[in-house]
Design a protein that fits this description.
By secondary structure, the chain is α/β, with parallel strands linked by helices. Helix content is 32%, strand content 21%. The chain is built from twelve helices and 20 strands. It has a ten-stranded mixed beta sheet, with helices on both faces. Strands 14, 16, 17 and 18 form a four-stranded mixed beta sheet that branches. The structure holds inosinic acid. The site of inosinic acid has 20 residues, from helix 4.
């Protein structure tokens, strides 16, 4: 069995969609295993740019089978909107997209709760995507969630939704939030999920069978390691495990099935929402990254915070995921910076460390930088790794040395063919 796991190594938005797409030409099955419509995976094919939230990115190839695994929280309304948009541009997924009967539904009351909980947090708000992700995982952990398998019985599903809306209304009442109409919500959910019913199946069996038969299987991580609920910058994280462990539990594949772990990192760092970001640059350098890299959230449109590559955090993510190869994206965005900085350690409470501190001590972390000469070259026409500017290759060699993993792919632009394999 040789499954590839593809994982974001920063705070999400590393360009995973593009890398999945770049490696999916030879893939048979692509699996989403965690998160939900908080993800926004951007894929550019020809003149069309698509943002996929729930549909696995590799599915833009006509023969790739896609699985939405048991670890995903699935908003049925969002998935239907996405399927309709894809169908209108000729991407028909019927018969090759399958949804786990064990995945949990994200329903309208989860989104209301997401909003309400953010308001309650006041100055400590996380800056969530408001897609209902946290509340859906709360229901899952609290063992009151509604699983996708339950849509097979619309009558029982209707009752369950009404029961859950009534329970949430008790909370909404206490929080001074407008109450929801249980019957109306339940009717809409039954209607929407009826369309998805033919796609629901046991994806755990499908994933394992594909791996056992030696098919090329790719698990596509969502968000990034630093947003992982256990190992990320808690509490400014998402509610799922975005590390390798979450990709296994969320797909039902065993650890020994994984043959290769590809970590995706941008050549600089970005973050949307609140939380520690030691290498954030609020000056010209950060603004140039935002402008040149179009760093605006693909799910929420929010401007992303930008800053230098953080090797303390990257080394941690490479180590805790057991990354074999790094895919370095958006290297072209660094062109034009007078010099390029990468953080090699932090000073925390007066002491230098190369270990990533837990969230609470992270806030005061002061980065120490190594600085490299910049480059001005336009990377658009570069077709081999060896033709990259020397200044960029020096940074890449430094990253490899610091992280103990090879940079096997360098992305030099948004197009499919702007991807250098090494
Ligand atoms: P939630 O996942 O919507 O609860 O948001 C929690 C935090 O994770 C917020 O800071 C979000 O901006 C961030 N986040 C969630 N999904 C993504 C993603 O796909 N890319 C980047 N940031 C994300």
């Amino acid at each position: 069995m040789a499954v590839t796991a593809l994982i974001g190594l920063q705070w999400g938005d590393e360009g995973k969609g593009k890398v999945v797409d770049a490696v999916s030409g030879s893939v048979d099955v692509v699996i989403r295993a965690q998160g939900g419509a908080n993800a926004g995976h951007t894929v550019k094919v020809g003149d069309t740019t698509r943002v996929l939230h729930l549909v696995p990115s590799g599915m833009l190839y006509p023969d790739v089978v896609g699985l939405i695994g048991n670890g995903v929280v699935l908003d049925p309304f969002q998935l239907i909107a996405e399927l309709d948009a894809l169908a209108s541009s000729g991407h028909v997924l019927d018969g090759r997209l399958w949804i786990s009967d064990r995945a949990h539904l994200v329903l309208p009351y989860h989104k209301e709760m997401d909003e309400a909980l953010e308001l309650l947090r006041g100055g400590g708000a996380i800056g969530t995507t408001k897609r209902g992700i946290g509340p859906a995982y709360m229901d899952k952990a609290g063992r009151v969630g509604i699983r996708v398998g339950e849509i097979a019985d619309p009558g029982a599903l209707r009752e369950r939704v009404i029961e859950q809306v009534e329970a949430k209304n008790r909370l909404f009442g206490a929080l001074d939030v407008k109450l929801m109409d249980g019957a109306a919500v339940a009717d809409a959910v039954v209607e929407a999920t009826r369309r998805l019913a033919p796609m629901v199946t046991d994806t755990v069996s499908m994933a394992n069978a594909a791996a056992e038969q030696g098919k090329e299987v790719l698990i596509e991580g969502a968000q990034g390691s630093l947003l992982d609920v256990d190992l990320g910058t808690y509490p400014y994280v998402t509610s799922s495990n975005c590390h390798l462990g979450g990709l296994l539990s969320g797909s039902g594949l065993p650890p020994r099935a994984i043959g290769r772990v590809v970590g995706v990192a941008k050549a600089y760092c970005t973050r949307v929402g609140a939380g520690p970001f030691p290498t954030e640059d609020n000056g010209e350098a950060g603004q140039q990254m935002r402008d040149k890299g179009h760093e605006y959230g693909s799910t929420t449109g929010r401007p992303r915070r930008c800053g230098w590559l953080d090797l303390v955090a990257l080394r941690f993510a490479v180590r805790t995921n057991g990354v074999d190869e790094i895919a370095l994206t958006k290297s072209d965005v660094l062109s034009g910076q007078p010099s390029i900085k990468v953080a090699t350690s932090y000073v925390v409470d007066g002491e230098e460390t190369t270990d990533l501190p837990a969230g609470v001590r992270f806030d005061g972390a002061e980065p120490c930088y190594a600085e490299f000469p910049g480059f001005d070259d336009d990377l658009a026409g570069v077709s081999t790794f060896d033709d990259l500017p020397g200044a960029l290759r020096d940074v890449i060699a430094f990253v490899e040395e610091a992280c103990g993993a090879r940079v096997a792919l360098v992305s030099t632009g948004p197009e499919r063919d702007q991807t250098l394999h090494r």
